[in-house]
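Retro notes (design track)

What went well: tokenization of the new backbones is finally stable.
What didn't: we kept losing track of which sequence belonged to which structure.
Fix going forward: every design gets posted as structure first, then sequence, in one message. First example under the new rule, 104 residues:
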């Protein structure tokens, strides 16, 4: 599964799993102002985080009761990874960064 990452409505990167890692790769036309986070500036090589979603994206995942409700409602769409959970809720975030499934 790949997710499109948008900054202020502009597609700037793709977020995906590569083996056991998560990777964020900026598009070739992304400018320095399109950075997802100050800790992850625009660059050619992907930002890779071992075995877990990048902390910037993890902070937006639901917890507790809300997580339970989402798992009950969207269970068949989730594959057990944080990436699939982010695909479900990533477009409803507050701020300049949103996430949407590829083709969605």
């Amino acid at each position: 599964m790949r997710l499109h990452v948008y900054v202020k409505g502009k597609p700037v990167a793709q977020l995906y799993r590569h083996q056991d890692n998560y990777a964020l790769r900026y598009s070739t036309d992304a400018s320095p102002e399109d950075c997802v986070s100050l800790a992850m500036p625009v660059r050619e090589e992907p930002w890779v985080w071992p075995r877990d979603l990048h902390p910037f994206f993890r902070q937006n995942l639901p917890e507790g009761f809300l997580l339970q409700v989402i798992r009950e409602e969207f269970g068949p769409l989730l594959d057990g990874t944080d990436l699939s959970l982010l695909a479900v809720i990533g477009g409803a975030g507050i701020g300049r960064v949103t996430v949407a499934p590829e083709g969605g």
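Added context from the reviewer: The helical segments are 55-58, 64-74, 82-89.
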